Amino acid sequence: MASQQEDLEHSSSRQVEAIAEKIRAGKTALGVELGSTRIKAVLIDDTYATIAAGVFEWENHLENGLWTYSLEEVWHGLQTAYASMAYDVENAYGEKLTRVGSMGISGMQHGYLALDANGQLLVPFRTWRNTNTHDAHEKLSKLFQYNIPERWSIAHLYQAILNREPHVPKVASLTTLAGYVHWKLTGNKVVGVCDASGMFPIDQDTKYYEKDLLAKFSAIPEVAAQPWHIENLLPTPLVAGRDAGRLTAEGAQLLDPTGTLQAGIRLVPPEGDGGTGMVATNSVRVRTGNVSAGTSIFAMVVLGRKLKHPRPEIDLTVTPVGDLVGQSHGNNFTSDLNAWVGLFSQFAHAAGFKVDMGTLYGTLFRAAIGDQADADAGGLLNYCFYSGEFLANLEEGRPVFARGPEAHMNLANFMRAQLFSAFAPVKIGMDVMIREEHVQVDSLVGHGGIFATPRVAQKILAAAFNTPIKVMSTAAEGGAWGMAVLADYLWHRDVALADYLDERVFAGAASTTENPDPRDVAGFERFFTRFMKGLTIEKAAIDAIPLEENHEDATQTE
Length: 558
Hints:
The protein is of the alpha/beta class. Helices cover 41% and strands 17% of the residues. The chain contains 20 helices and 20 strands. It has helices at 2-25, 71-93, 134-144, 153-162, 177-186, 193-196, 211-219, 221-224, 230-233, 249-255, 273-280, 334-350, 357-367, 411-436, 456-465, 479-489, 497-505, 518-533, 535-544, 551-557, and strands spanning 28-34, 38-45, 50-57, 61-63, 66-68, 102-107, 113-115, 173-175, 190-192, 236-238, 271-272, 288-293, 297-302, 315-318, 324-330, 380-383, 400-403, 443-447, 469-472, 511-514. The strands form six sheets. The chain has a seven-stranded mixed β-sheet, with helices on both faces. It has a five-stranded mixed β-sheet with strand order 3-2-1-6-11. The N and C termini lie far apart (70 Å). Residues 553-558 have low confidence and may be disordered. Belongs to the FGGY kinase family. GO terms for molecular function: kinase activity. Its EC number is 2.7.1.-. Pfam families: FGGY_C (PF02782), FGGY_N (PF00370).
């Protein structure tokens, strides 16, 4: 027995030393992603295993009716996540992290980050969650004959022009959140081509912005009156595998104020969370796709051709190497669900039970597919709209739970309605893509923390889309891991990205596939019909409930 224990200890010691040697030799890649609810730093080795990670939790907030994060939060969060990851390295392997082999920054796509000639932010960062750009969306989509979603940077810029916002003439550059951080770390104003495709349409041949659409935008009278030209504002798009600069001394200090991290590290093009989701699910080939679920949700399919007609329900973006992608994007997904789980946690605490959040989520999720759950969620309805939702024609959102007096109210149906409602908006766009545009899909891969509980979200998504859903062993790794993989691709760019992922990263990766259950499919369709009919409830809630309430003042008044 003692001998076996000694053998295990020696084996563990050898593994630790082997990883420590990789860290010293720079056989690592660092991915950092600024997601909607957390900033995460992930360090991988040359086998693509995560060897250290750090996380900073954060939330967007409303400022003058617009969703935003402050730049102070950005840097505090980045430094905290990096410091936690670096501590992991030193604690587990006895090495101070002075360098990595390569690194990359990823972030939530779209939105409006406008800087003046001195690099100063002109207005608070307007995130993808804002849907105040409907006029710009409609006018640009008609002019371009190309769907320009409300979230896109160009829609935000044009809406600011239409609103005659005083900062507009001062704009010297536009970028994404990942592009901004990358610029501060390297001095280079570039973005990955997938991230760029959420700013302005990308030409499939040149992997650059569509020149004719740039010209059309510039010719709009109110745009032509500005002292700048749109092409000079946008960052340069780069495909995956390109060298996008080196970490400067100032950048190293920004990321690691302790001074331990050394300058000179190579960075790859900063990417959006859509691109890192494609990489993390091995979905960059034509006819593959993925569903990335977090604070928002998007279902993406790599297209073999352009769509027959512009479709407002389908965004056209590209993969990290510039291939066309059809995307159904929902602004809302887990925020409402997390709030309800938080309520159950408070109840458990009040009742004297100690339940960790992982156990709580697992217990509640499993109830949704248990024996007590009706196929259609028992007549319950839920609207998870914290913010506006283009797919549902909503400029604002209010979370709403509703039921009729004869509805079958139990825990199983409540949780099933929560999960059904979270997937319902993105189904609108997917139905258009598959049923009307006849897009061919060989495989769809689920990705995100919601798939960490085995089978549940996978089974419900299979019902929603009526298609098999694969979940890989890396599903919960997240976009930061996908960004680290893209950082490593810098050293393998002589191989096509799809082949690199197949042959190196995912060779032998374990996965499970959930096929659609006919009972679940029929139940989801009944729920979905109620969901669409009941949108009048959501619209009434928007009219009746103020977007921002000062609860403290209200309490004092009472």
